[in-house]
Amino acid sequence: MATSLARISRRCVTPSLSSNLIRRYFAAEAVAVATTEAPKPKSEVTPSPDRAKWDYRGQRQIIPLGQWLPKVAVDAYVAPNVVLAGQVTVWDGSSVWNGAVLRGDLNKITLGFCSNVQERCVVHAAWSSPTGLPAETLIDRYVTVGAYSLLRSCTIEPECIIGQHSILMEGSLVETRSILEAGSVVPPGRRIPSGELWGGNPARFIRALTNEETLEIPKLAVAINHLSGDYFSEFLPYSTVYLEVEKFKKSLGIAV
Amino acid sequence: MGTLGRAIYTVGNWIRGSGQALDRVGSLLQGSYRLEEHLSRHRTLMSVFDKSPLVDKDVFVAPGASVIGDVQIGKGSSIWYGCVLRGDVNNISVGSGTNIQDNSLVHVAKTNLGGKELPTTIGDNVTIGHSAVIHGCTVEDEAFVGMGATLLDGVVVEKHAMVAAGSLVRENTRIPSGEVWGGNPAKFMRKLTDEEIAYISKSAENYINLAHIHAAENSKSFEEIEVERALRKKYARKDEDYDSMLGIVRETPAELILPDNVLPEKTTTRVPTTHY
């Protein structure tokens, strides 16, 4: 009943004489607006007629570049929003949360055991590092990288916590069992010593961590690992989008 | 042999049919908590009523990015993964050879403390770092906006200027040519050396090449992706590091080789970065 109503209403909306006039009126108005208000581009912009404005496939999660294929461990949770491109390895038990972009196109990115890269992070690797060491981004085991962080060619040793919205620039090294406060900006090549709490822009020493706090660090990573297990079980191994595609094809009369 | 092939094909069809039936049984068991997947309705280039984006054919726009409204993007530019360029209230014009890196936001506000609605103009060969927020600003040619920077309304970044990573540039600040500004609120830090100014244009050029590769990869059709997958499986080798310890160098097939200028070993110039 509802579908037939929808089909009838859709047929009414398809081009008829009156709607053609309406469309032509809007087009004329749009041209008038364009010529009077929009500033001319410095160079001529030649759009391509077959640029797809909308792809039903959406953004691919794993983007291989050349012979590099991002590798995701079988029990690692990678959200469907995430983009893994190039040389990215996501090891066991780790998780990459929604909206993160791990772009290993220039250099390698490794996410160690039971680590997590939270929402909307951008992990990238530069061509070369100012320290002269290999410019790959290495996130070792039990590291928690907070939401909205930006990591570029940095090395994070085991059992660290990187606060939310922090920025780690090229060549920086965060040694084991240290915590970076939220919003901290670590300049290029800076080393955060082991067992300390740093924060601020640029990152400065705040205090040393107590033993209890140090023991909590891997516990946080494991807790997020458990949480990612819940998310992981929400997804089927393969998508069932083909069911919707078949429904569309049937409604359009295309042979399934 | 034709009939045997036919028989195997039919058996395969039966197994797939039973699989689909099992899927329906499982969905029934799940009831209201059942997961229903839908096709992506994400629109990469989206028009708001009569304002539609004008994007040159040479531009790489990541499929997950959103270019909405009155946005003009010149040739050779790249809009990376997760960016949002919202030209709904006013227009955004991005020059040629500019790269707007991952998860950035370029926008204009409808209401402004000063009362003005400013268009956003980004010049040629500009590098805008990851997760930057550009709100009603003018960024002139060959400028560099560091990653995580937030540029508020009315900011003007002049030619060859650099905004350091993580900085917050307050409203109507003018960042003069050849200087590095940073911090929260952004203050003058130091002057750029000539080497660094040359690096900015070199980096923009490198990004243009990188964008071509990503554009080619993202626009592949399903068949092409499957073919490459099969190729990769066929030529799968031990890890490069393992091989290099033994002194072995293996060949990769031509389709899987990236152009020269992207591989890090090929760059000979030392890359300078800002020092704090």
Automatic annotation (TrEMBL), chain A:
Keywords: Membrane, Metal-binding, Mitochondrion, Transit peptide, Zinc. Its main location: mitochondrion. InterPro entries: LbH_gamma_CA-like, Transf_Hexapept/Carb_Anhydrase, Trimer_LpxA-like_sf. The keyword Membrane applies. SUPFAM superfamilies: Trimeric LpxA-like enzymes. GO terms for cellular component: mitochondrial membrane. GO terms for molecular function: metal ion binding. It is found in: Mitochondrion membrane. It is a peripheral membrane protein. Transmembrane segments: none annotated. Gene3D superfamilies: Hexapeptide repeat proteins. Belongs to the gamma-class carbonic anhydrase family. PANTHER family: DYNACTIN SUBUNIT P25 (PTHR13061), GAMMA CARBONIC ANHYDRASE-LIKE 1, MITOCHONDRIAL-RELATED (PTHR13061:SF29). Involved in complex I assembly in mitochondria and respiration. Component of the mitochondrial oxidoreductase respiratory chain complex I; element of the extra matrix-exposed domain, which is attached to the membrane arm of this complex. Interacts with GAMMACA2. This is Gamma carbonic anhydrase-like 1, mitochondrial.
UniProtKB/TrEMBL annotation, chain B:
It comes from the Eukaryota. Keywords: Mitochondrion. Its main location: mitochondrion. InterPro entries: Hexapep, LbH_gamma_CA-like, Transf_Hexapept/Carb_Anhydrase, Trimer_LpxA-like_sf. One of its GO terms (biological process) is photorespiration. It is a peripheral membrane protein. Signal peptide: none annotated. It is found in: Mitochondrion membrane. One of its GO terms (cellular component) is respiratory chain complex I. Belongs to the gamma-class carbonic anhydrase family. This is Uncharacterized protein. It comes from Brassica carinata. The lineage of its organism: Eukaryota, Viridiplantae, Streptophyta, Embryophyta, Tracheophyta.
